[in-house]
Amino acid sequence: MNKVFTTFAALVFLLCTGAAKGQIAEPVELVNPLMGTDSKPSLSNGNTYPAIALPWGMNFWMPQTGKMGSGWAYQYSADKIRGFKQTHQPSPWMNDYGQFALMPITGRLRFEEDDRASWFSHKAEVAKPYYYQVYLADHDVVTEIAPTERAASFRFTFPRTDSAYVVLDALDKGSYVKLLPQENKIVGYTTRNSGGVPENFRNYFVLQFDKPFASTNIYKDKELVTNVLEFQGNHAGAVVGFKTRKDEQVNVRVASSFISPEQAELNLKEIGNDDFEAVKQKAKTAWNKELSRIQIEGGTPDQQRTFYSCLYRSLLFPRKFYELDAAGNVVHYSPYNGQVLSGYLYTDTGFWDTFRSLFPFLNLMYPSVNAQMQAGLVNAYKEGGWLPEWASPGYRNVMVGNNSASVVADAYLKGGRGYDINTLYEALVHGANNAGPLEAVGRAGVQYYNKLGYVPYDVKLNENAARTLEYAYDDFAIYQLGKALHKPAKEVNLYAKRSQNYRNLFDKQTGLMRGKNQDGKFQAPFNPFKWGDAFTEGNSWHYTWSVFHDVQGLMNLMGGPKPFVAALDTVFTLAPVFDASYYGSVIHEIREMQIAHTGNYAHGNQPIQHMIYLYNYAGQPWKTQYWVRETMNRLYLPTPDGYCGDEDNGQTSAWYVFSALGFYPVCPATDQLLGAPLFKKATLRLENGKEVVLNAPANSEANRYIRSVIVNGQSYAHNWLSNNELQKGATVDFDMAATPNTSRGTKAEDAPYSFSKAKK
């Protein structure tokens, strides 16, 4: 098996690699959408599903192995497919909305998901971002899917039979279907969701077949009937039948809308008169266009597949939640107030995860797309009164922090324009000084934070230390944006002062961050290995480093570079011990840390993912270079078990993409990026027409250390690169070696930005 896989990988590598220059001709062919799908609630290897979609597309499609309503809708270990589902699920923990399913069957007429399910094999499955194909053994049917942004083309290849059917399941919790036999069409809507929607939420769909129906049946809450053409109730569905020749193909064009049935028909025009192969080719072209913005050379076949698979994941969320009306105007259904309004809207992302590297990556490579996302945040604020921190599709009460501040500030500070930044600044100030309608909107505990400088441990507000640390960083982001917008000095300085609130939780006795009570005394007893409680999905060893904006200040609290580096080293040398008593059981994030063989470093979850890069602040950049390569080598593979925890809407993938290129944004809302490259060469084609060329010809498994750097022909000693300078175009030459250069990047001026060192 290993020899076969290696041979296949090498063949793909040769076929997809250009001749002389070694550039990837069609990077989409290196993407594995099944990466991360071998997951379950107790252990996440990504918790992904194969998203058959266009970049940032409104609708995704997926094969469904799990039962309706399960967040684990596709698991690599499964052996049956129940249907092919339109999905908007950002993660299994958030679950889905706007969902319905198609399923081809043969033989006995049936509808229920277990009855219609079919055995399948991964050996007879093809999964690409732009195309999915699988053989359904129990029905002797091949299903194929090719997507557009709001529609999809299905092709079912049937055997010779007078009992060929296509099932349309609009799901329970309220749905409607109507058969239009004269038009070979099914229309209807589904309302099933997992929250974050107004009462009038509906996803309207239309299915257009290219073959007349030989029979029709409506599913009415557990009953199949033949004498009606429509039904509205708890669980509606339809089954249409055909007589087919051997290998006859039945094509179905499908589209949906959150606005109206008429808009669903408009969205179907994305396919127009294109046949299946044309839709497939256009989707392939769309992916190659975006993926080719970054060309890599060198590395192993697995490293190239991992890179482009991670880049694919980085270009899915947040998804478009807007549509184009008959006049071509941008309109959206608002999940915040239930109205249909003009303008952009994007959704399905949690800023607690994605502020760290996903949004900085978009600012570097796809700033015009992120500008639309920012315009969508303006609309979200106007329509709901708050910026979302986790949207799916509207406000969701999940995670902590007020990290919309980072997302908004970073975009503007890195050149984002064309949207109402002053309204967004108003939204940030509003969110920073008020508790929202949900605990995860605005700032829970804000009355304590603004008065005491921290959220106390003893006020029955969980994850209080994590909230304090993230609020302090978010205040820094507001400070940075306020300066750029020339807001009053008194106002700007308030957020600068609050950005130092992280200091209030530093315990000099332990050298770690620790919960603190209202009376100013630290919470006791204190176990730095206790997950949860004062922290979010991590322990004190993980969250102590959440001072993105003032690493020098944290280092000073720890006693200087030497104890700071010793503490960083300790994270890796500690055994993977933990205290799970707060949760009552071992949560999957803990288990993923335990089995990774990286000590107490928990790369599978977001709070500590930047920690590896902090050696750059303490004059030992070679340790960053070592651990970045180790993390990429050990914890990422282009396989179904290829991640080391939840992929989380592009965040964990963007970490890999950034790190493989040779830099990472430790502190969004500044413009500095730092690290060491994985490939011999990478070319970034920026939106403004400039190119960033990253050369490291001596790069190899052994040569992971930077001996020297030349930027635009000039020797460069700093441990960071400027995003804004890269946007002007640049050539960066890395001289790589097998042993660390312990004299380069060791001076104080070589360290990246820290608030404590900066000129205010």
UniProtKB/TrEMBL annotation:
Keywords: Calcium, Hydrolase, Signal. Its cofactor is Ca(2+). GO terms for cellular component: cytosol. Coiled coil: none annotated. GO terms for biological process: carbohydrate metabolic process; glycoprotein catabolic process. Residues 738-760 are annotated as: Disordered. Residues 30-257 form the Glycosyl hydrolase family 92 N-terminal domain. Residues 1-25 form the signal peptide. The keyword Ribosomal protein does not apply. GO terms for molecular function: carbohydrate binding; peptide-N4-(N-acetyl-beta-glucosaminyl)asparagine amidase activity. Residues 263-737 form the Glycosyl hydrolase family domain. Monomer. This is Glycoside hydrolase family 92 protein. The lineage of its organism: Bacteria, Pseudomonadati, Bacteroidota, Cytophagia, Cytophagales.
